[in-house]
Amino acid sequence: MARITAGVTTSHVPAIGAALDNGRAGNAYWTPVFAGYDFSKQWIKTAAPDVVILVYNDHASAFSLDILPTFAIGCAESFKPADEGWGPRPVPVVEGHPELAAHVAQSVIQQDFDLTIVNKMDVDHGLTVPLSLMFGQPGRWPVRVIPFAVNVVLYPPPSGRRCYELGKAIRHAVESFDEDLNVQVWGTGGMSHQLQGPRAGLINREWDARWLDLLIDDPETLSRMPHIEYLREAGSEGIELVMWLIMRGALDPMVRTLHRFYHVPASNTAVGHVILENSR
Amino acid sequence: MALDKPYLDVPGTVIFDADQARKGYHLNQFCMSLMTAENRERFKRGERAYLGEWPMGEAQKEAVLARDYNRMITLGGNIYFLAKLFSTDGKSFQYTAATMTGMSQEAYAQMMLNGGRSPEGNRRLAETVVKERK
Questions:
Q1: For a disulfide at A177, which of A2, A39, A138, A164, Cβ 3.0-4.6 Å?
Q2: What is the pLDDT of residues A248-264, one digit of tens each?
Q3: Do B21 and B66 belong to one domain?
Q4: Quick check: B100 and A197 CB within 8 A?
């Protein structure tokens, strides 16, 4: 039987990818960011997931205003890095897991979450930067990835509550898959940041810390936080954090924190990163 | 009955909601077209002519030509779509964010190194004007 063993959350700032791709990771500006992932790179070698269900948002790359699904699951054999306006990132093609993806899609839809099934999709920095942070720069990603895209670009995104409940449904789906697979769920984006308008550059360190505490210890309460609080306190792009609740919903109510990291700034953004494991 | 939009009260911020997306449909789709090298070259060779292929309002076209990002956002643009435009110009998110705040890129970058813009006084229109953390 497949099982979900751990959850990872991380910001997915595009400048982090650019720093890696252009050989600037060793610069004084970036060293403290990457240092926050030293533990994680070691840990993931041992944890050795077979599949990562990677929750992220597409940033107007695969989806435009022509079609913009709220929840979309990538069921393809593979996904190419997207050209986001400066050419695709020089990272490996992402290999999917079509059998598990199809199983999760069918199960989750039958649990009342109306997913869009995607069989052709390029993946942007939202998906590839977390892979780079956790695995470095290998010639091939050492894991299969099911891209799970959430709309947080066009307001309103799904509520935190809906995301948290979706995580539970994904867990139920994974645990009814017959093959013996070690599966992780990752939630990406955030933390506080605003990329637009005269208020750009907003960072809320205290709020981010409280939010992380709640994510770990009281996700039920956190899942009821209304969107307006994210917008006011964490910036217009801080709303991406609702995606972390999908990861959290897929784990036990009680979890162990293996790693917790926070750093300001990466470009415009507060970087947050945690690794959680089920207690039992 | 009108929809409740409490976010209209957040200073210095335009939330890209369904209404904004409706206004900005062609502007944002023009930006999407810059995701191929061929279109980027064609746009650079003649911006006005390229914009002419899109059924955008004149105000939107002028905002694009002036690279006035606040104006583009007011007229329905979204930052992730507009990213295709500033990437075509070889500019970063941080450069573009700085232009929207009226700060130099250096001053903006330093504000971020100092911990970013404080939420204090920046939560509600009634509180005060947007200000930078010194």
A1: A2
A2: 999 999 999 999 999 99
A3: yes
A4: yes
* Residue ranges of chain A whose pLDDT lies below 50: none
**How many domains does chain B fold into?**
2
Is residue A259 annotated as part of the catalytic site, yes or no? no
For residues B68 and B102, membership in a common domain is answered with no
Q: Which of residues 10-49 of A touch B (CB under 8 A)?
A: 14-15, 18
Nearest C-alpha neighbor of A88 from the set A29, A151, A17: A17
For B12-58, how does the pLDDT look when each residue is reduced to its tens digit (9 = 90+)? 999 999 999 999 999 999 999 999 999 999 999 999 999 999 999 99
Q: Indicate whether B32 and B64 sit together in one domain.
A: yes
B32 and B82 assigned to the same domain: yes
How many other β-carbons are positioned within 10 Å of the β-carbon of residue A42?
10
Domain spans, chain A: 3-257
Bridge-based pairing state of the strands A255-266 and A116-118: unpaired
Q: Does B125 touch chain A (CB under 8 A)?
A: no
Distances (CA, A) of A124 to A45, A135, A165, B8, B80: 24, 17, 26, 30, 11
Residue B85 and residue B23 in one domain = yes
The CATH code of the domain that includes B68 is 1.10.700.10
* Cβ-nearest to A200 among B34, B78, B100: B100
Class of the CATH domain delimited by A3-257: alpha beta
- ipTM of predicted complex: 0.94
Residue A238: alpha-carbon gap to chain centroid? 13
With beta carbons less than 8 A apart as the criterion, state whether A147 and A121 touch: yes
Nearest neighbour of B13 by CB, restricted to A61, A199, A268? A199
Report CB contact under 8 Å: B32, A203. no
Residues B82 and B23 in one domain: yes
